[in-house]
Amino acid sequence: MSELDEDTAVSPVAEGMWQADVGSRWNVGSAPNGGYLLAIAARAVLATTGRPDPLSVTAHYVSPPEPGPLQVAVETVRSGRRYATATAALRQGEREAVRVLAAVGDLAAMQGPTRVAAEAPTVPGPSGCVEPPDGGWVPEVARRYDLRLVPAAGDPPPDRPYEVSGWIRLADGAPPSVLALLAFADAFPPAVLGPLDVGWVPTIELTVHVRARPAPGWVLGRFATRFLVDGLLEEDGELWGEDGRLLAESRQLALVMPRR
Amino acid sequence: MSELDEDTAVSPVAEGMWQADVGSRWNVGSAPNGGYLLAIAARAVLATTGRPDPLSVTAHYVSPPEPGPLQVAVETVRSGRRYATATAALRQGEREAVRVLAAVGDLAAMQGPTRVAAEAPTVPGPSGCVEPPDGGWVPEVARRYDLRLVPAAGDPPPDRPYEVSGWIRLADGAPPSVLALLAFADAFPPAVLGPLDVGWVPTIELTVHVRARPAPGWVLGRFATRFLVDGLLEEDGELWGEDGRLLAESRQLALVMPRR
Protein backbone atom coordinates (compact mmCIF):
# COMPACT_ATOMS: atom_id res chain seq x y z
CA MET A 1 0.00 0.00 0.00
CA SER A 2 1.41 3.42 -0.93
CA GLU A 3 2.02 6.16 1.62
CA LEU A 4 -0.76 8.17 -0.01
CA ASP A 5 -3.23 5.25 0.11
CA GLU A 6 -2.29 4.60 3.71
CA ASP A 7 -2.56 8.21 4.86
CA THR A 8 -5.83 8.95 3.02
CA ALA A 9 -7.60 5.79 4.25
CA VAL A 10 -11.12 6.44 5.56
CA SER A 11 -13.05 4.04 7.74
CA PRO A 12 -16.84 4.13 8.03
CA VAL A 13 -18.35 5.51 11.23
CA ALA A 14 -21.98 5.95 10.13
CA GLU A 15 -23.92 6.62 6.91
CA GLY A 16 -21.84 9.26 5.07
CA MET A 17 -19.54 9.68 8.07
CA TRP A 18 -15.91 8.62 7.87
CA GLN A 19 -12.86 8.77 10.04
CA ALA A 20 -9.41 9.54 8.65
CA ASP A 21 -6.06 9.84 10.35
CA VAL A 22 -4.09 12.90 9.23
CA GLY A 23 -0.45 11.91 8.94
CA SER A 24 2.18 14.48 9.92
CA ARG A 25 4.41 13.33 7.07
CA TRP A 26 2.34 15.51 4.66
CA ASN A 27 2.99 18.66 6.70
CA VAL A 28 4.31 22.01 5.58
CA GLY A 29 5.57 23.28 8.91
CA SER A 30 2.83 22.36 11.36
CA ALA A 31 -0.04 22.27 8.84
CA PRO A 32 -0.97 19.39 6.53
CA ASN A 33 -0.66 20.17 2.81
CA GLY A 34 -3.91 21.18 1.13
CA GLY A 35 -3.65 18.72 -1.75
CA TYR A 36 -3.26 15.86 0.69
CA LEU A 37 -6.40 16.99 2.57
CA LEU A 38 -8.22 17.27 -0.76
CA ALA A 39 -7.32 13.62 -1.48
CA ILE A 40 -8.78 12.54 1.88
CA ALA A 41 -12.00 14.44 1.18
CA ALA A 42 -12.32 12.99 -2.33
CA ARG A 43 -11.69 9.49 -1.06
CA ALA A 44 -14.58 9.81 1.41
CA VAL A 45 -16.84 11.21 -1.34
CA LEU A 46 -15.93 8.35 -3.71
CA ALA A 47 -16.53 5.80 -0.94
CA THR A 48 -19.92 7.31 -0.09
CA THR A 49 -21.15 7.62 -3.66
CA GLY A 50 -19.57 4.45 -5.08
CA ARG A 51 -18.06 6.36 -8.02
CA PRO A 52 -14.47 5.76 -9.14
CA ASP A 53 -13.31 9.22 -10.28
CA PRO A 54 -13.37 12.79 -9.01
CA LEU A 55 -14.48 14.98 -11.96
CA SER A 56 -14.47 18.42 -10.31
CA VAL A 57 -13.41 18.97 -6.72
CA THR A 58 -13.43 22.37 -4.99
CA ALA A 59 -11.92 22.84 -1.54
CA HIS A 60 -12.09 25.86 0.73
CA TYR A 61 -9.44 25.76 3.44
CA VAL A 62 -10.84 27.32 6.58
CA SER A 63 -8.48 26.24 9.37
CA PRO A 64 -5.40 23.97 9.32
CA PRO A 65 -6.06 20.65 11.07
CA GLU A 66 -3.62 18.94 13.45
CA PRO A 67 -2.14 15.58 12.62
CA GLY A 68 -4.41 12.92 14.15
CA PRO A 69 -8.02 11.77 13.83
CA LEU A 70 -10.24 13.71 11.44
CA GLN A 71 -13.96 13.26 10.81
CA VAL A 72 -15.25 13.51 7.25
CA ALA A 73 -18.99 14.14 6.90
CA VAL A 74 -20.22 13.54 3.34
CA GLU A 75 -23.59 14.74 2.12
CA THR A 76 -24.76 13.47 -1.25
CA VAL A 77 -26.57 16.38 -2.88
CA ARG A 78 -27.66 14.40 -5.95
CA SER A 79 -26.84 11.02 -7.40
CA GLY A 80 -27.42 10.97 -11.14
CA ARG A 81 -26.70 8.57 -13.95
CA ARG A 82 -23.49 10.22 -15.20
CA TYR A 83 -22.22 11.73 -11.96
CA ALA A 84 -22.99 12.42 -8.34
CA THR A 85 -22.67 15.73 -6.50
CA ALA A 86 -21.59 15.76 -2.87
CA THR A 87 -20.09 17.89 -0.15
CA ALA A 88 -17.52 16.86 2.42
CA ALA A 89 -16.77 18.64 5.69
CA LEU A 90 -13.43 17.77 7.32
CA ARG A 91 -13.61 18.38 11.05
CA GLN A 92 -11.66 17.78 14.22
CA GLY A 93 -14.29 17.94 16.94
CA GLU A 94 -16.18 21.21 16.50
CA ARG A 95 -13.41 22.77 14.43
CA GLU A 96 -13.86 22.62 10.66
CA ALA A 97 -10.69 22.39 8.58
CA VAL A 98 -11.85 22.08 4.98
CA ARG A 99 -15.16 22.24 3.12
CA VAL A 100 -15.36 20.47 -0.22
CA LEU A 101 -17.94 20.47 -3.02
CA ALA A 102 -17.44 17.83 -5.70
CA ALA A 103 -18.83 16.07 -8.74
CA VAL A 104 -17.69 12.46 -9.05
CA GLY A 105 -18.31 9.92 -11.79
CA ASP A 106 -16.72 7.36 -14.06
CA LEU A 107 -14.28 8.78 -16.60
CA ALA A 108 -14.19 5.42 -18.44
CA ALA A 109 -17.96 5.60 -19.04
CA MET A 110 -18.03 9.12 -20.49
CA GLN A 111 -19.10 9.25 -24.12
CA GLY A 112 -19.04 12.04 -26.63
CA PRO A 113 -16.81 14.03 -28.97
CA THR A 114 -13.10 14.60 -28.33
CA ARG A 115 -11.09 17.60 -29.52
CA VAL A 116 -7.93 18.73 -27.77
CA ALA A 117 -6.42 22.05 -28.87
CA ALA A 118 -3.39 22.19 -26.56
CA GLU A 119 -0.21 20.26 -26.08
CA ALA A 120 1.89 19.41 -23.07
CA PRO A 121 4.62 22.00 -22.49
CA THR A 122 7.96 21.21 -24.08
CA VAL A 123 10.42 20.83 -21.22
CA PRO A 124 13.51 18.75 -20.48
CA GLY A 125 12.86 15.22 -19.15
CA PRO A 126 13.18 14.47 -15.42
CA SER A 127 16.92 13.86 -15.73
CA GLY A 128 17.34 17.37 -17.18
CA CYS A 129 15.46 18.91 -14.26
CA VAL A 130 16.54 19.77 -10.73
CA GLU A 131 15.36 19.02 -7.22
CA PRO A 132 13.67 21.99 -5.51
CA PRO A 133 16.11 24.24 -3.67
CA ASP A 134 15.79 23.48 0.03
CA GLY A 135 16.91 26.85 1.37
CA GLY A 136 18.00 25.08 4.53
CA TRP A 137 14.47 23.79 5.18
CA VAL A 138 12.62 20.95 3.48
CA PRO A 139 8.94 20.60 4.45
CA GLU A 140 7.95 17.08 5.46
CA VAL A 141 5.53 16.82 2.52
CA ALA A 142 8.41 17.32 0.06
CA ARG A 143 9.76 13.89 1.11
CA ARG A 144 6.53 12.25 -0.11
CA TYR A 145 7.21 13.30 -3.69
CA ASP A 146 9.96 12.88 -6.18
CA LEU A 147 9.86 16.37 -7.69
CA ARG A 148 12.14 17.60 -10.50
CA LEU A 149 11.69 21.22 -11.48
CA VAL A 150 12.49 22.75 -14.84
CA PRO A 151 15.41 25.08 -14.09
CA ALA A 152 14.19 28.68 -14.01
CA ALA A 153 16.05 31.09 -16.28
CA GLY A 154 15.80 33.93 -13.76
CA ASP A 155 12.70 35.99 -13.06
CA PRO A 156 10.25 36.26 -15.96
CA PRO A 157 9.94 39.55 -17.88
CA PRO A 158 7.06 41.79 -16.66
CA ASP A 159 4.62 40.64 -19.33
CA ARG A 160 5.15 36.91 -18.63
CA PRO A 161 3.43 34.94 -15.83
CA TYR A 162 5.25 33.65 -12.80
CA GLU A 163 5.62 29.98 -13.64
CA VAL A 164 6.88 26.74 -12.15
CA SER A 165 6.93 23.43 -14.00
CA GLY A 166 8.45 20.02 -13.62
CA TRP A 167 7.98 16.29 -13.14
CA ILE A 168 6.42 14.64 -10.14
CA ARG A 169 5.79 11.13 -8.85
CA LEU A 170 5.16 9.54 -5.46
CA ALA A 171 8.49 9.07 -3.67
CA ASP A 172 7.63 5.54 -2.57
CA GLY A 173 7.38 4.34 -6.18
CA ALA A 174 3.60 3.82 -6.20
CA PRO A 175 1.98 4.57 -9.57
CA PRO A 176 -0.14 7.74 -9.69
CA SER A 177 -3.90 7.45 -9.06
CA VAL A 178 -6.71 9.95 -9.54
CA LEU A 179 -6.33 10.82 -5.86
CA ALA A 180 -2.60 11.38 -6.38
CA LEU A 181 -3.51 13.91 -9.11
CA LEU A 182 -5.44 15.91 -6.51
CA ALA A 183 -2.38 15.87 -4.25
CA PHE A 184 -0.02 16.72 -7.15
CA ALA A 185 -2.18 19.79 -7.97
CA ASP A 186 -0.98 21.33 -4.70
CA ALA A 187 2.50 19.76 -4.41
CA PHE A 188 4.64 22.21 -6.38
CA PRO A 189 6.12 25.30 -4.74
CA PRO A 190 3.86 28.31 -5.47
CA ALA A 191 4.86 30.00 -8.73
CA VAL A 192 5.22 33.33 -6.93
CA LEU A 193 7.57 31.94 -4.29
CA GLY A 194 10.80 32.24 -6.24
CA PRO A 195 10.53 35.75 -7.70
CA LEU A 196 8.61 37.33 -4.80
CA ASP A 197 9.87 37.68 -1.25
CA VAL A 198 6.79 36.28 0.47
CA GLY A 199 6.28 34.38 3.68
CA TRP A 200 3.64 31.93 2.56
CA VAL A 201 0.79 31.63 0.09
CA PRO A 202 -2.25 30.17 1.85
CA THR A 203 -4.92 28.80 -0.46
CA ILE A 204 -8.42 30.23 -0.11
CA GLU A 205 -9.96 27.93 -2.72
CA LEU A 206 -8.63 25.16 -4.94
CA THR A 207 -10.56 23.51 -7.77
CA VAL A 208 -9.22 20.49 -9.64
CA HIS A 209 -10.82 18.96 -12.74
CA VAL A 210 -9.60 15.40 -13.26
CA ARG A 211 -9.80 14.70 -16.99
CA ALA A 212 -8.09 11.30 -17.36
CA ARG A 213 -6.82 8.46 -15.18
CA PRO A 214 -3.03 8.54 -15.02
CA ALA A 215 -0.80 5.77 -16.37
CA PRO A 216 2.27 4.65 -14.40
CA GLY A 217 5.25 6.99 -14.72
CA TRP A 218 6.02 10.63 -14.20
CA VAL A 219 3.42 13.39 -14.27
CA LEU A 220 4.35 16.76 -15.78
CA GLY A 221 2.98 19.78 -13.96
CA ARG A 222 2.89 23.42 -15.01
CA PHE A 223 1.61 26.16 -12.71
CA ALA A 224 1.34 29.83 -13.58
CA THR A 225 0.18 33.03 -11.93
CA ARG A 226 -0.88 35.84 -14.23
CA PHE A 227 -2.91 38.03 -11.91
CA LEU A 228 -1.57 39.13 -8.55
CA VAL A 229 -3.68 42.09 -7.39
CA ASP A 230 -3.53 43.59 -3.89
CA GLY A 231 -2.05 40.37 -2.52
CA LEU A 232 -4.71 38.11 -4.08
CA LEU A 233 -3.60 35.73 -6.82
CA GLU A 234 -4.79 32.90 -9.00
CA GLU A 235 -2.56 29.95 -9.84
CA ASP A 236 -3.55 27.88 -12.87
CA GLY A 237 -2.19 24.36 -13.12
CA GLU A 238 -2.08 21.59 -15.68
CA LEU A 239 -0.99 18.00 -15.09
CA TRP A 240 0.06 15.92 -18.10
CA GLY A 241 0.98 12.25 -18.54
CA GLU A 242 4.24 11.10 -20.06
CA ASP A 243 2.21 10.21 -23.16
CA GLY A 244 1.16 13.86 -23.59
CA ARG A 245 -2.41 13.42 -22.39
CA LEU A 246 -3.95 16.06 -20.13
CA LEU A 247 -4.70 14.46 -16.75
CA ALA A 248 -6.02 17.40 -14.76
CA GLU A 249 -6.48 21.15 -14.65
CA SER A 250 -6.41 23.15 -11.44
CA ARG A 251 -6.98 26.72 -10.36
CA GLN A 252 -6.60 28.22 -6.97
CA LEU A 253 -7.25 31.60 -5.38
CA ALA A 254 -4.62 32.37 -2.76
CA LEU A 255 -3.25 35.15 -0.60
CA VAL A 256 0.31 36.40 -0.53
CA MET A 257 1.38 36.71 3.10
CA PRO A 258 4.40 38.90 3.91
CA ARG A 259 7.44 37.26 5.47
CA ARG A 260 7.21 37.52 9.26
CA MET B 1 -33.69 49.19 -9.67
CA SER B 2 -32.18 47.08 -12.44
CA GLU B 3 -33.79 43.90 -13.74
CA LEU B 4 -30.91 41.92 -12.23
CA ASP B 5 -31.25 43.60 -8.82
CA GLU B 6 -34.98 43.04 -8.93
CA ASP B 7 -34.82 39.40 -9.94
CA THR B 8 -32.00 38.44 -7.54
CA ALA B 9 -33.62 40.11 -4.50
CA VAL B 10 -33.64 37.91 -1.41
CA SER B 11 -35.85 38.49 1.63
CA PRO B 12 -35.03 37.10 5.06
CA VAL B 13 -37.08 34.15 6.32
CA ALA B 14 -34.94 33.08 9.29
CA GLU B 15 -31.26 33.16 10.34
CA GLY B 16 -29.34 32.26 7.15
CA MET B 17 -32.57 31.44 5.32
CA TRP B 18 -33.71 33.58 2.41
CA GLN B 19 -36.49 33.58 -0.13
CA ALA B 20 -35.92 34.56 -3.75
CA ASP B 21 -38.30 34.69 -6.67
CA VAL B 22 -36.87 33.12 -9.83
CA GLY B 23 -37.93 35.25 -12.76
CA SER B 24 -38.73 33.50 -16.05
CA ARG B 25 -37.11 36.34 -17.99
CA TRP B 26 -33.67 34.73 -17.32
CA ASN B 27 -34.71 31.43 -18.90
CA VAL B 28 -33.01 29.41 -21.58
CA GLY B 29 -35.97 27.38 -22.75
CA SER B 30 -37.74 26.31 -19.56
CA ALA B 31 -34.66 26.51 -17.26
CA PRO B 32 -33.23 29.62 -15.60
CA ASN B 33 -29.69 30.51 -16.71
CA GLY B 34 -26.94 29.27 -14.39
CA GLY B 35 -25.18 32.61 -14.05
CA TYR B 36 -28.42 34.23 -12.94
CA LEU B 37 -28.90 31.53 -10.27
CA LEU B 38 -25.29 32.04 -9.18
CA ALA B 39 -26.01 35.74 -8.66
CA ILE B 40 -29.02 34.88 -6.44
CA ALA B 41 -26.88 32.50 -4.36
CA ALA B 42 -24.08 35.03 -3.99
CA ARG B 43 -26.51 37.75 -3.01
CA ALA B 44 -27.85 35.57 -0.16
CA VAL B 45 -24.30 34.75 0.95
CA LEU B 46 -23.29 38.44 0.94
CA ALA B 47 -26.46 39.35 2.89
CA THR B 48 -25.79 36.62 5.47
CA THR B 49 -22.11 37.40 5.97
CA GLY B 50 -22.27 41.18 5.61
CA ARG B 51 -19.43 41.20 3.07
CA PRO B 52 -19.60 43.30 -0.12
CA ASP B 53 -17.79 41.15 -2.69
CA PRO B 54 -17.79 37.55 -3.90
CA LEU B 55 -14.12 36.47 -4.16
CA SER B 56 -14.53 32.86 -5.31
CA VAL B 57 -17.89 31.29 -6.01
CA THR B 58 -18.39 27.67 -7.09
CA ALA B 59 -21.79 26.37 -8.17
CA HIS B 60 -22.83 22.81 -8.90
CA TYR B 61 -26.06 22.66 -10.89
CA VAL B 62 -28.02 19.62 -9.81
CA SER B 63 -31.55 20.20 -11.13
CA PRO B 64 -33.07 23.13 -13.03
CA PRO B 65 -35.54 25.09 -10.87
CA GLU B 66 -38.89 26.39 -12.09
CA PRO B 67 -39.65 30.10 -12.19
CA GLY B 68 -41.23 31.03 -8.85
CA PRO B 69 -40.31 31.02 -5.16
CA LEU B 70 -36.90 29.59 -4.26
CA GLN B 71 -35.45 29.05 -0.79
CA VAL B 72 -31.78 29.85 -0.22
CA ALA B 73 -30.23 28.25 2.87
CA VAL B 74 -26.86 29.80 3.73
CA GLU B 75 -24.43 28.17 6.14
CA THR B 76 -21.46 30.25 7.25
CA VAL B 77 -18.55 27.83 7.51
CA ARG B 78 -16.11 30.39 8.85
CA SER B 79 -16.08 34.15 9.26
CA GLY B 80 -12.52 35.48 9.28
CA ARG B 81 -10.94 38.90 9.19
CA ARG B 82 -10.16 38.98 5.46
CA TYR B 83 -12.99 36.81 4.17
CA ALA B 84 -15.85 34.53 5.08
CA THR B 85 -16.55 31.05 3.72
CA ALA B 86 -20.14 29.93 3.23
CA THR B 87 -22.35 27.47 1.41
CA ALA B 88 -25.72 28.16 -0.17
CA ALA B 89 -28.33 25.57 -1.10
CA LEU B 90 -31.00 26.74 -3.56
CA ARG B 91 -34.14 24.67 -3.13
CA GLN B 92 -37.75 24.53 -4.22
CA GLY B 93 -39.43 22.48 -1.51
CA GLU B 94 -37.49 19.23 -1.18
CA ARG B 95 -35.88 19.60 -4.59
CA GLU B 96 -32.38 21.09 -4.62
CA ALA B 97 -31.46 23.11 -7.70
CA VAL B 98 -27.96 24.45 -7.03
CA ARG B 99 -25.30 24.01 -4.33
CA VAL B 100 -22.78 26.79 -3.92
CA LEU B 101 -19.53 27.09 -1.97
CA ALA B 102 -18.07 30.58 -1.75
CA ALA B 103 -15.49 32.87 -0.21
CA VAL B 104 -16.66 36.47 0.16
CA GLY B 105 -14.82 39.53 1.37
CA ASP B 106 -14.01 43.15 0.62
CA LEU B 107 -11.94 43.73 -2.51
CA ALA B 108 -11.35 47.36 -1.51
CA ALA B 109 -9.70 46.26 1.76
CA MET B 110 -7.24 43.78 0.21
CA GLN B 111 -3.62 44.78 0.66
CA GLY B 112 -0.47 43.37 -0.87
CA PRO B 113 1.64 43.32 -4.01
CA THR B 114 0.22 43.74 -7.52
CA ARG B 115 1.70 42.27 -10.68
CA VAL B 116 -0.41 41.60 -13.77
CA ALA B 117 1.20 39.66 -16.61
CA ALA B 118 -1.66 39.59 -19.10
CA GLU B 119 -3.58 42.08 -21.16
CA ALA B 120 -7.16 42.27 -22.31
CA PRO B 121 -7.63 40.67 -25.73
CA THR B 122 -7.36 43.04 -28.67
CA VAL B 123 -10.76 43.02 -30.35
CA PRO B 124 -12.95 45.49 -32.21
CA GLY B 125 -15.08 47.79 -30.04
CA PRO B 126 -18.79 47.08 -29.51
CA SER B 127 -19.74 48.90 -32.72
CA GLY B 128 -17.44 46.57 -34.69
CA CYS B 129 -19.07 43.49 -33.18
CA VAL B 130 -22.30 41.70 -34.02
CA GLU B 131 -25.40 40.59 -32.18
CA PRO B 132 -25.55 36.83 -31.58
CA PRO B 133 -27.17 34.91 -34.43
CA ASP B 134 -30.68 34.01 -33.31
CA GLY B 135 -31.15 30.93 -35.48
CA GLY B 136 -34.86 31.59 -35.34
CA TRP B 137 -34.88 31.31 -31.53
CA VAL B 138 -33.76 33.82 -28.95
CA PRO B 139 -33.72 32.56 -25.36
CA GLU B 140 -35.49 34.88 -22.91
CA VAL B 141 -32.21 35.48 -21.01
CA ALA B 142 -30.63 36.95 -24.16
CA ARG B 143 -33.04 39.90 -23.89
CA ARG B 144 -31.54 40.77 -20.49
CA TYR B 145 -28.15 41.50 -22.01
CA ASP B 146 -26.79 43.74 -24.68
CA LEU B 147 -24.27 41.30 -26.19
CA ARG B 148 -21.97 42.09 -29.14
CA LEU B 149 -19.82 39.21 -30.31
CA VAL B 150 -16.51 39.49 -32.11
CA PRO B 151 -17.29 38.13 -35.58
CA ALA B 152 -15.87 34.59 -35.89
CA ALA B 153 -13.57 34.01 -38.87
CA GLY B 154 -14.87 30.47 -39.40
CA ASP B 155 -13.99 27.42 -37.32
CA PRO B 156 -10.59 27.57 -35.61
CA PRO B 157 -7.71 25.41 -36.90
CA PRO B 158 -7.31 22.08 -35.02
CA ASP B 159 -4.59 23.37 -32.71
CA ARG B 160 -6.55 26.45 -31.62
CA PRO B 161 -9.23 26.51 -28.90
CA TYR B 162 -12.90 27.00 -29.59
CA GLU B 163 -13.42 30.60 -28.61
CA VAL B 164 -16.12 33.20 -28.24
CA SER B 165 -15.53 36.78 -27.22
CA GLY B 166 -17.36 40.07 -27.18
CA TRP B 167 -18.85 42.93 -25.22
CA ILE B 168 -21.67 42.66 -22.74
CA ARG B 169 -23.76 44.98 -20.58
CA LEU B 170 -27.16 44.81 -18.92
CA ALA B 171 -29.84 45.56 -21.47
CA ASP B 172 -31.73 47.89 -19.13
CA GLY B 173 -28.77 50.26 -18.95
CA ALA B 174 -27.87 49.53 -15.31
CA PRO B 175 -24.13 49.70 -14.60
CA PRO B 176 -22.43 46.34 -13.96
CA SER B 177 -22.06 45.15 -10.36
CA VAL B 178 -20.04 42.31 -8.87
CA LEU B 179 -23.22 40.21 -9.05
CA ALA B 180 -23.60 41.11 -12.73
CA LEU B 181 -20.08 39.74 -13.28
CA LEU B 182 -21.27 36.36 -11.97
CA ALA B 183 -24.17 36.47 -14.41
CA PHE B 184 -21.93 37.63 -17.30
CA ALA B 185 -19.63 34.65 -16.68
CA ASP B 186 -22.45 32.40 -17.93
CA ALA B 187 -24.15 34.73 -20.41
CA PHE B 188 -22.18 34.10 -23.60
CA PRO B 189 -23.09 31.25 -25.94
CA PRO B 190 -20.85 28.23 -25.20
CA ALA B 191 -17.65 28.38 -27.24
CA VAL B 192 -18.31 24.89 -28.65
CA LEU B 193 -21.79 25.81 -29.85
CA GLY B 194 -20.82 27.35 -33.18
CA PRO B 195 -18.32 24.81 -34.52
CA LEU B 196 -19.92 21.68 -33.01
CA ASP B 197 -23.37 20.39 -33.79
CA VAL B 198 -24.52 19.95 -30.21
CA GLY B 199 -27.91 20.13 -28.53
CA TRP B 200 -26.93 21.85 -25.33
CA VAL B 201 -23.98 22.19 -22.97
CA PRO B 202 -25.20 21.77 -19.39
CA THR B 203 -22.81 23.03 -16.73
CA ILE B 204 -21.71 20.56 -14.07
CA GLU B 205 -19.64 23.07 -12.13
CA LEU B 206 -18.87 26.76 -12.55
CA THR B 207 -16.30 28.71 -10.52
CA VAL B 208 -15.92 32.46 -10.79
CA HIS B 209 -13.17 34.52 -9.17
CA VAL B 210 -14.16 38.16 -8.93
CA ARG B 211 -10.94 40.19 -8.99
CA ALA B 212 -12.17 43.80 -9.24
CA ARG B 213 -15.37 45.81 -8.95
CA PRO B 214 -16.55 46.86 -12.41
CA ALA B 215 -16.80 50.48 -13.51
CA PRO B 216 -19.80 51.64 -15.58
CA GLY B 217 -19.59 50.70 -19.23
CA TRP B 218 -19.13 47.60 -21.32
CA VAL B 219 -17.47 44.43 -20.07
CA LEU B 220 -15.30 42.43 -22.46
CA GLY B 221 -15.60 38.66 -22.17
CA ARG B 222 -13.48 35.93 -23.69
CA PHE B 223 -14.34 32.25 -23.30
CA ALA B 224 -12.32 29.34 -24.64
CA THR B 225 -12.47 25.56 -24.63
CA ARG B 226 -9.19 23.72 -25.11
CA PHE B 227 -10.04 20.27 -23.80
CA LEU B 228 -13.12 18.41 -25.03
CA VAL B 229 -12.64 14.74 -24.11
CA ASP B 230 -15.38 12.11 -24.35
CA GLY B 231 -18.07 14.79 -24.21
CA LEU B 232 -16.63 16.52 -21.13
CA LEU B 233 -15.21 20.01 -21.57
CA GLU B 234 -13.80 22.94 -19.67
CA GLU B 235 -14.59 26.51 -20.62
CA ASP B 236 -12.22 29.19 -19.32
CA GLY B 237 -13.47 32.74 -19.19
CA GLU B 238 -12.08 36.19 -18.54
CA LEU B 239 -14.04 39.39 -18.02
CA TRP B 240 -12.27 42.71 -18.55
CA GLY B 241 -13.29 46.31 -17.99
CA GLU B 242 -13.18 48.98 -20.70
CA ASP B 243 -10.08 50.33 -18.93
CA GLY B 244 -8.24 47.01 -19.50
CA ARG B 245 -8.48 45.78 -15.90
CA LEU B 246 -9.28 42.12 -15.26
CA LEU B 247 -12.64 41.93 -13.49
CA ALA B 248 -13.15 38.18 -13.18
CA GLU B 249 -11.94 34.77 -14.23
CA SER B 250 -14.23 31.80 -14.66
CA ARG B 251 -13.92 28.12 -15.41
CA GLN B 252 -16.63 25.59 -15.89
CA LEU B 253 -16.82 21.84 -16.43
CA ALA B 254 -19.67 20.97 -18.74
CA LEU B 255 -21.14 18.15 -20.80
CA VAL B 256 -21.79 18.18 -24.51
CA MET B 257 -25.27 16.80 -25.11
CA PRO B 258 -26.16 15.58 -28.61
CA ARG B 259 -28.93 17.32 -30.49
CA ARG B 260 -32.20 15.48 -29.83
Summarize the structure.
The structure is a homodimer of 260-residue chains. With 260 residues, chain A is mainly beta. Chain A contains three helices and 18 strands.
What do you see in this structure?
Two copies of one chain form a homodimer. With 260 residues, chain A is mostly beta strands. Chain A has two domains: 3-107, Acyl-CoA thioesterase, double hotdog domain (Porin, Beta Barrel), CATH 2.40.160.210; 129-258, Porin. Chain A is 11% helix and 45% strand. In chain A, helix 2 runs antiparallel to helix 3. The first copy, chain A, starts with a helix and ends with a strand. The interface between A and B is large, with 59 and 59 residues. Strand 15 of chain A pairs antiparallel with strand 9 (115-116) of chain B.
Please specify the SSE layout and strand pairing.
Two copies of one chain form a homodimer.
Chain A: H1 3-7, E1 10-14, E2 17-22, E3 27-28, E4 31-32, H2 34-49, E5 53-61, E6 68-79, E7 83-92, E8 95-105, E9 115-116, E10 145-149, E11 162-170, H3 178-184, E12 198-200, E13 203-210, E14 219-225, E15 227-229, E16 232-241, E17 246-255, E18 257-258
Antiparallel strand pairs in A: 1-2, 2-6, 3-4, 5-8, 5-13, 6-7, 7-8, 10-11, 11-14, 12-18, 13-17, 14-16, 15-16, 16-17
